[in-house]
Amino acid sequence: MSLTMTREVFITCAVTGSGQTQDRSPHVPRSPEDIAEAAIDAAKAGAAIAHLHVRDPETGQPSRDPALYRRAVDLIRASDTDVILNLTAGMGGDLVFGPPDRPLPLADGTDFISAEERLTHIAECRPEICTLDCGTMNFAEADYVMSNTPGMLRAMGRRMEALGVKPEVECFDTGHLWFAKQLVAEGVLSDPALVQLCMGVPWGAPNDLATFNAMVAAIPEHWTFSAFSLGRDQMAYAAAAILAGGHIRVGLEDNLFLEKGVLATNAQLVERARGIAEAMGARILSPAEVREKLGLKAHHPEAAQ
C-alpha cells in the first residue's frame, strides 16, 4: 500500500478493553449500561465504530459473558444514535504458564476455549464487525501468552464469514499481517480485508515509524486499515495513520489520559482525534458511509444461526 494521506477518515472508539484499568480511572466503563452510554457518547462525538469488550459490573474484571454483551448491544441498538458495532472475539486464548522451572501445570488466569465458544456472543449479537487477533505473542506479562494458532484462526475466520460478520484482523506484528494475507489467499477471509495495526503493545511491533511504515507498505492497496498506539502516543498515531492512508482508533482501551495528569472520557478522546483529522484537512465519515465503504451487513440478533 502506498503512503498516501486519507482524505475521508473513520474513527473507531475502543471504549473499555480487557486490561486492568478499571481502578485507574473512574471513566472506564464497567456495566453494560455504562459501556453502552460510553459508546453512544463516542458516536455523538464523531466515532463511526464502537469496539466493545464487557466487564463484570461489580469487579470490573474482563468477562466473556454473552448476556453482558447482549445487554450492551441491545441498549446501543435501542438508542437514537447510529454507530457500527465491533465486538471483540479476542478473549479465550489466554495461556498463563508457571515459572520457568515449573511451566506446567498452567497457572491461574489461563482461559483457553474452542473457536465456537469464542464466538458465542458474536453469533448471538450479530455485530457488523468482530475482531480476529491474527497471531500468537508474548503479551507484556512475564508468563502470559496470547495464543491464536493457525487452525484456531482458520476456524474462527470461517465462522465469522458464515455469520456475515466482517472480521477486523488485529495485527500486533509483521507475521500477523503475513498470515492475514494467507487467510485471504485460502478463501478463509473475504477480499478485501479490514486490518487494525496494533502498535507499541509489548511484545509485538514497536511503535516506531520505520516499523509502522513497513507494515503499512505490506497491506494490499485495496484493503482498509486503521492503526493505534498506546498511552501518550495515541494521538500521534491518529495523525500518523491518516498520513499513511489509514483510519483512526482511540479510546480508553488504549489510553486513559487526555493530557498529562488529566483523565479522559471516551468522547473526549474521539473529539481530540476528530480535531486532529479535520485540522489535517480530512473529512470524518458517518456510520452509514463506513457501512457502504466496507460492505458491512446490518443484522438483527434473532437472526443468529
Task: Using the CA coordinates, give the radius of gyration.
Answer: 18 Å
Question: Would you tell me the structural class of the helices and strands?
Answer: alpha/beta
Distance between the termini: 36 Å
Provide mean pLDDT, rounded: 95
Number of strands: 18
What can you tell me about this protein's structure?
The chain has 305 residues and is an alpha/beta fold. It is 34% helix and 20% strand. The strands form 5 sheets. Strands 2-3-6-9-12-13-14-15 form an 8-stranded parallel β-barrel, surrounded by 7 helices. The termini are far apart.
Structure, briefly:
The chain is of the alpha/beta class and 305 residues long. It has helices spanning 32-45, 66-78, 115-118, 120-125, 150-163, 174-186, 209-217, 234-243, 266-279, 287-294; strands at residues 8-9, 11-14, 49-52, 54-55, 62-63, 84-87, 93-96, 111-112, 129-133, 137-138, 144-146, 166-171, 194-198, 224-228, 247-250, 257-259, 262-263, 283-284.
How would the blueprint of this fold be written?
Elements lengths: L7 E2 L1 E4 L17 H14 L3 E4 L1 E2 L6 E2 L2 H13 L5 E4 L5 E4 L14 E2 L2 H4 L1 H6 L3 E5 L3 E2 L5 E3 L3 H14 L2 E6 L2 H13 L7 E5 L10 H9 L6 E5 L5 H10 L3 E4 L6 E3 L2 E2 L2 H14 L3 E2 L2 H8 L11
Parallel strand pairs: 1-18, 2-3, 2-15, 3-6, 6-9, 9-12, 12-13, 13-14, 14-15
Antiparallel strand pairs: 4-5, 7-8, 7-11, 10-11, 16-17
Keywords for this structure?
305 residues, eight-stranded parallel beta barrel, 18 strands, 10 helices, alpha/beta
